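Sorry, can you check?
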Amino acid sequence: MGSARTFGLVCALREELGTLRERASRAERALGLEVLELQLGEARLVLCVSGVGKVAAARAASALLGAGAREGLLVGGTCGGLKRGLVPGTLVHCTRAVQADLAVAQGREVESCAHLRRAWRRIAEGPEGWFLTSDRPVLSLWRRLRLARAFAGPAVADMETAAVAAVASATGVPWAALRAVTDGATGLGAASFKLHYPRQAGRAADTVPVLLESLSGAPRR
């Protein structure tokens, strides 16, 4: 497996690994995290549950890079829709990740890898949009509307993607993210999350095997 193309997948919570956890053939510890390994055809996938928030996500990304994930870092999980039309169940692909609560403008935004994003969209249909990453969940309608006005076009809220993107960008590793919407731009964010999370949590991760299969025959980038 030393020559296998190795990708990494970060999910904040265990449920967001979908069925991949059951398919893991090996587990080890790195940076205090459990790193799982799967062999998917000609590709190797290392993955871990980061925990919630940017600091936890950055640690997980670093652990996966240490485990050899140099072909690409992927982020899967759920998100909150900030624009009308991004209703629960919508799969959204990240075009650009933004540390939405960071006061310093320089380095706050990171663009995803277009090649990975296009390949993933062929596997999992869904719109593209900005991922606005904050340290607090965006549950109030007032905060949702405030974020939606600040960024043009489709946008969702999450708590990890921009941190993984920053680590990937700093190390020259391509990255992409796919999340399923659990709650839309309404005043019922918390209730909607609880209702839809069990069904939506693992949807993004469960598309990764087919994605890596499609990439296994592609030239290295």
